[in-house]
């Protein structure tokens, strides 16, 4: 089997180089070019909404499988201007600069569909405006699987699942409870460069013609992905893991017709209200159980500072797409730099120093990037000496400042499973490339990623890097929930590339990521 080599781009170290040497090598490797509208993220020639009709049609057809429960979504009467909620490592906060939201007045919180769901079903403040696996399990226990998140259309491993008993519901909602995964049914694109030659599907969803593929190049593939946060959206350069949505209004329609199985799309006014609410949300970790307040002693953690963060598309793109022409700055985060100079013997001080060291690990650790599809296949960039910010360049946010779907190997399956990650229970697709520059190559993956939108073999396994704020509230991690903890994320990079992180480096990096 001939597979692409993959590499990573979060923050594995290649010690022994100075930071100035790193920047010189990286910038020297990037071809000089002028940013176009396409490169700045405003136009993508592979962007298509042709998938939408098939995906929505599939969700609507799945109404033939009736939910036993039709309960509506429990919703608080108000989301205050500043809300603080407990999470696994402290407290996550939501900030709305424009003031509190009365939920009864906003369609984000209204039942616009037929199955009791609202946008709030999968996007709640205590989990960073996403869901965590722990929160899903608590909801299952409290409702015996009747909460609106547990719906056959996409909460279950397949709409055909048996949910007639408590034990049956536990089996049906296994991936949602264990990894916080929602089923995403997307049709094969027209005239794809690849065919699906084999599927190992423990749920018989993709392999059943009634719910899945009808031929190697037609029908629906079911993937299982983590819901992305509906906050901090002003920093986005791609919507959804595979970048399939062109804008937030379009996404609100697809979510209402698909996830909520509505009879009709939201009106233009409802779409505008949903987008306005989402666009006014900022979420970030506000308090750490060990370091305490994250904007004390000169630090700038928390959502209020985040709401003031400067951003525009290409703001710090290392590939030369910054419209201002400014040079790439690898020091992506500076939230906790003042804590590097703290003195004292208290536990609080020691933990704050660890957070600041972790921020430095993120900013300065060097890595030789090779085989990263989406980066190293750019002419002249087959090898790049980079840093975490090579792929996470948006200042104090951590996603990429232009659209840049990448394959770092998280979706690998078959004989080449990603280290330190748990992909058990996910379907495995064998894709044979029949056309295009990769014709003859075979890929074995748990998720085709961007390729289901573009139809291109070069996009197999590619997904976007998410915004890194509010991480502590929304475990597990990666698009397929394969990293149960942030330590698993760090270990993935460390083991995959033989990086040799010390235990101190790992701990410092995890403490830092937990405070974002």
List its traits:
23% helix, 516 residues, 12 helices, disordered N terminus, four-stranded antiparallel β-sheet, three-stranded antiparallel β-sheet, alpha+beta
Q: Give me the Rg, rounded.
A: 22 Å
Kindly name the structural category.
Answer: alpha+beta
Mean pLDDT: 90
The outline comes out as globular
Strand order of the largest sheet: 2-3-9-10
Run of helices and strands: HHEEEEHHHEEEEHHEEHHEEEEHHH
Q: Provide the low-confidence segments as ranges.
A: 1-43
How far is the first residue's CA from the last residue's CA?
A: 40 Å
Helix content: 10-25%
Strand content of the residues, in percent? Answer: 5-15%
Number of helices: 12
The figure for the number of domains is 1
**How many runs of DSSP E, i.e. beta strands?**
14
Largest sheet entry: 4 strands, antiparallel
How would you sum up this structure in a few lines?
The protein has helices at 19-29, 50-61, 133-143, 166-172, 174-179, 248-258, 268-279, 303-307, 347-364, 451-454, 486-496, 503-513, and strands at residues 78-79, 82-86, 90-95, 101-102, 182-187, 194-200, 213-215, 218-225, 282-288, 292-293, 367-370, 383-386, 428-433, 442-445.
Topology, please?
Elements: H1 19-29, H2 50-61, E1 78-79, E2 82-86, E3 90-95, E4 101-102, H3 133-143, H4 166-172, H5 174-179, E5 182-187, E6 194-200, E7 213-215, E8 218-225, H6 248-258, H7 268-279, E9 282-288, E10 292-293, H8 303-307, H9 347-364, E11 367-370, E12 383-386, E13 428-433, E14 442-445, H10 451-454, H11 486-496, H12 503-513
Antiparallel strand pairs: 1-4, 2-3, 3-9, 5-8, 6-13, 7-8, 9-10, 11-12, 13-14
Helix pairs in contact: 6-7, 9-12, 11-12
């Amino acid at each position: 089997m001939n597979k692409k080599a993959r590499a990573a781009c979060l923050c594995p170290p290649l010690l022994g180089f100075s930071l100035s040497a790193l920047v010189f090598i990286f910038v020297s490797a990037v071809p000089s070019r002028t940013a176009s509208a396409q490169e700045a993220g405003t136009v993508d020639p592979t962007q298509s909404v042709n998938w939408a009709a098939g995906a929505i049609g599939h969700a609507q057809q799945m109404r033939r499988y009736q939910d036993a429960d039709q309960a509506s979504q429990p919703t608080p009467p108000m989301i205050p201007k500043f809300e603080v909620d407990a999470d696994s490592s402290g407290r996550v906060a939501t900030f709305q600069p424009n003031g509190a939201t009365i939920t009864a007045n906003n369609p984000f919180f209204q039942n616009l569909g037929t199955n009791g769901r609202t946008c709030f079903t999968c996007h709640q403040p205590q989990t960073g405006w996403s869901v965590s696996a722990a929160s899903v399990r608590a909801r299952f226990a409290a409702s015996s699987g009747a909460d609106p998140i547990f719906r056959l259309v996409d909460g279950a491993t397949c709409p055909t699942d048996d949910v007639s008993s408590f034990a049956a519901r536990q089996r049906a909602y296994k991936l949602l409870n264990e990894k916080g995964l929602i089923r995403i049914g997307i049709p094969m694109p027209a005239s794809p460069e690849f065919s699906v030659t084999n599927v190992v599907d423990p749920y018989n969803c993709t392999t059943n013609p009634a719910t899945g593929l009808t031929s190697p190049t037609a029908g629906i593939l079911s993937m299982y992905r983590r819901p992305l946060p509906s906050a901090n959206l002003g920093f986005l350069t791609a919507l959804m893991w595979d970048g399939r949505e062109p804008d937030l209004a379009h996404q609100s329609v697809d979510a209402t017709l698909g996830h909520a199985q509505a009879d009709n799309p939201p009106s233009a006014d409802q779409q505008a209200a949903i987008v306005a609410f989402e666009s006014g949300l900022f979420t970030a970790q506000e308090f750490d159980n060990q370091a305490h307040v994250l904007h004390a002693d000169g630090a700038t953690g928390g959502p209020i500072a985040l709401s003031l963060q400067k951003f525009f598309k290409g703001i710090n793109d290392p590939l030369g797409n910054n419209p201002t022409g400014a040079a790439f700055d690898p020091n992506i985060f500076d939230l906790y730099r003042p804590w590097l100079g703290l003195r004292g013997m208290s536990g609080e001080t020691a933990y704050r120093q660890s957070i600041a060291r972790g921020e430095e690990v993120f900013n300065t650790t060097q890595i030789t990037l090779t085989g990263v599809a989406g980066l190293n296949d750019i002419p002249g960039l087959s090898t790049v000496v980079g840093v975490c910010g090579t792929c996470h360049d948006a200042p104090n946010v951590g996603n990429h400042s232009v659209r840049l779907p990448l394959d770092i190997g998280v979706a690998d399956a078959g004989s080449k499973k990603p280290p330190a990650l748990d992909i058990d229970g996910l379907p495995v697709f064998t894709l044979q490339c029949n056309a295009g520059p990769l014709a003859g190559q075979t890929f074995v993956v748990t998720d085709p990623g961007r390729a289901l939108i573009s139809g291109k073999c070069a996009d197999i396994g590619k997904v976007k890097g998410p915004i890194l704020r509010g991480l502590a509230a929304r475990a597990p991690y990666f698009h397929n929930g394969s990293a149960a903890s942030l330590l698993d994320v760090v270990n993935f990079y460390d083991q995959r590339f033989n990086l040799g992180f010390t235990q101190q480096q790992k701990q410092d990096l995890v403490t830092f990521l937990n405070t974002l």
